[in-house]
Amino acid sequence: MSKRFPGVDAVTDVSLDVFAGEVHVLAGENGAGKSTLMKILAQVDAPTSGGIEIDGVPVVHRGPAHARRLGVSMVHQEFALAPDLTVAENLFLGHEPGRLGWIRRRVERARARRLLRRVGLDVRETRTVRTLSTAQQQRVEIAKALAVDTGLLVLDEPTASLTEQESAELFTVLRSLTATGTAVCYISHRLDEIFTIGDRVTVLRDGSVVTTRHVGELDEAALVRSMVGRDVENLYPRVFREPGPVRLRVRGLERAEAVRGVDLSVRAGEILGLAGLIGAGRTELARAVFGAEPATAGRLTLDGRDLRVRSPREAMAAGIGYLTEDRKGDGLALQLGVDVNITLGAPPTRGGLIDLRAERDEAEHYRDRLGIRTPRVNSPVRLLSGGNQQKVVLARVLRAGAGVLFVDEPGRGMDVAAKSEMFRQLDELASEGRAIVLISSYLPELMNMCDRVLVLRAGRVAGELDRAEFSERRLVALATGAGGGDE
Ligand SMILES: Nc1ncnc2c1ncn2[C@@H]1O[C@H](COP(=O)(O)OP(=O)(O)OP(=O)(O)O)[C@@H](O)[C@H]1O
Ligand SMILES: [Mg+2]
């Protein structure tokens, strides 16, 4: 199968078998063609050449509804639920069991409850989707995929915004599906989970298959090598130095229910980690400091001086930066070019006009440094792969050069090589005396990159660990409130 977009060979002559009952992982660098390949299976896109057979029968491409009738469902990298409809309404959107009034609706609700049980989701089917957490919404997506008779379930980076615990629960659901013969195609950048959940792995590079192997035949280093085409020496290139004076101090910060009296300080040269479950208040804390959602109480000082922040504009003017976790929501202008997105808000000027040439030069600099894969430096961001979009947001934040920087799940969706480069840049920023707050749900990231980690639970600081005290068990214990956290 091949797929050409204008100027890009996204998928080139790929052959792939997927067996009943297996979890088939697709791995590869950002822009390697993983999502494109899977979208063709789900008939969201048609191939330029080649085709699919299901149980030996050639498939005619007619679109996603047709794919679902043939038993192929896909949960996309970005969810597509209707936020203001109920869970049950979302599950059967487009194929309601019938429109014969309340009896049908009762049948529908009973079916919804069965589906929710199947994916281990304990919420009422009458809940509005907007009120659910990301992890819960994702379960709804999977339940929706299972609402038709599914032989092949495709998941595109399903754990990118889940905590370890939530990922483990997702794997249990997937295992129960494969046990009954469902095939799962699973796109992931997380090496650890590829080995946990995968039976076989196909590695793509530049749109072509590098290899398909049983995961047992590979180790992490070999997998990385086949993805990147070289060894990645150090995934977490951090150099620890003695931190300088406190740059940002937060006292008694409150934000409605989400943040309840949080104190924190972060020093020049320091990377402070924020750990916690989804909903623990990490993002809300960052948004409150950044002025995106005003705090209801609390005091901030920056470099020893009182600081009042009522809007992101004021925060940026004061030298506080924020790499948001939601690149689609408030991160990117999807219709605009990569270059414009990188300089958004503060383009280089000459004589009062935007200096287009300087803008392009700067964009090319970040494109090369972060390996942003784009046909042209002014191509619209919406044409980029998920991980490459994330790199554009990162480039903008790096360029803004804040003295205090909050980065919220910065590695989300990035491949291992890109992540390693990003962490190198964060370390470089720290070495220049900036203070960095790293929010991450991936504990190895926190443990390898941070001087200290603050664990939030239900909006409060549940504990703080120094680098010497780090252990996954302690961090998890503090985050969940289970046990005393001692080894
Ligand atoms: N609609 C489109 N128009 C033009 N180019 C596209 C389109 N969709 C994808 N591409 C390009 O095809 C290539 C493969 O993209 P794809 O989304 O499949 O990558 P991916 O392996 O899923 O990457 P990631 O890990 O970042 O999600 C990229 O170079 C991307 O820019
Ligand atoms: Mg993708």
From TrEMBL:
Gene3D superfamilies: P-loop containing nucleotide triphosphate hydrolases. InterPro entries: AAA+_ATPase, ABC_carbohydrate_import_ATPase, ABC_transporter-like_ATP-bd, ABC_transporter-like_CS, P-loop_NTPase. Residues 1-231, 240-483 form the ABC transporter domain. GO terms for molecular function: ATP binding; ATP hydrolysis activity. It is found in: Cell membrane. The keyword Transport applies. One of its GO terms (cellular component) is plasma membrane. Pfam families: ABC_tran. It is a peripheral membrane protein. SMART domains: AAA. The keyword Disulfide bond does not apply. CDD domains: ABC_Carb_Monos_I (cd03216), ABC_Carb_Monos_II (cd03215). Keywords: ATP-binding, Cell membrane, Membrane, Nucleotide-binding, Repeat, Translocase, Transport. This is D-xylose ABC transporter ATP-binding protein.
